[in-house]
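**Entry details**
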Amino acid sequence: MKSRIRLQVLLASLFVAASILASWAAADTAVMTPTKDNTLIETPVDNSNGIGDGFFAGRVGLNGGGTRRRGLLAFDVSSIPAGSTIDAVTLALEMAQSINATVQTVTLHRVSADWGESGSAGAGSGSLAQGGDATWLYRFFDTDAWTTSGGDFDAAASASASVGGIGPYSWAGAGLVADVQSWVDNPASNFGWLVRGNEDSLQAVKKFYSREGFIPPKLTVDYTRSTIGVQEPDAPAVSFAAPWPAPASGRVNLSYTLPRASRVSLAIHDATGRVVRHLVAGAVEQAGRQATVWDLRTDSGKHAASGVYLARLVVDGAAYQRRIPVVR
């Protein structure tokens, strides 16, 4: 009886999975961490926090001079193929420290000029900036100044979120989609975002983990690649082997062969199309056979439920898929 029920579940999941395959023909997800981040510190005005484990946003207390802090972070989106359409963007930050758990609005603003991260490190007041660090006055200390002290950025926020106590927070929406789309279309305009907290109230500052911190920022971008000129007719084929064992109950082995060094993403999707596990995120891998194991857990560590999942392999923008039946 139990075997019959399991079979019925698998057949139903296969039907649902097959119905969405066509809509995935050119869809993909890129997950990335920052290439640089920093904190603009109003006073001491020549301080910075380039390689500190966090960046700060908001106004500090009187012990810190009662002045403002603004975070900066930037991502390299070059793994997204040119011509792609950006469908959704989510920025995840881990708030690591706050004087209190009072909820503050934290906004993201598109930066309009390049800036630097060098070797300065410290807490909310940072340390003396090193050559190339971003500071309140300089994009690159101490040679290239901002046009406006405190950073050059769009006044209108691209996204906002309410941040209270320590923990994870996320920003999403049409503004972030527009920003990333512009960076894909014109990479020279990609200077990242400025993170702005409550600058009106004392002791409103929030510390977020930086790329050097315990839980780095994560940018997740869903996009649809262009179908024009994606793959030449005579290009060598990528081989994506059938997952085994099948059905799987404890772990499943995945392997593929690359004809040349390529940029690779590999993710597991459930039958609704939702990504449940990222296995390879935009890594450059060498030619030859590559192998990995999915332990049948999601990104959050939970056990994947019974059903049919899809392993989606993307190699230099071209997608390949394999079904994985899971029985618990």
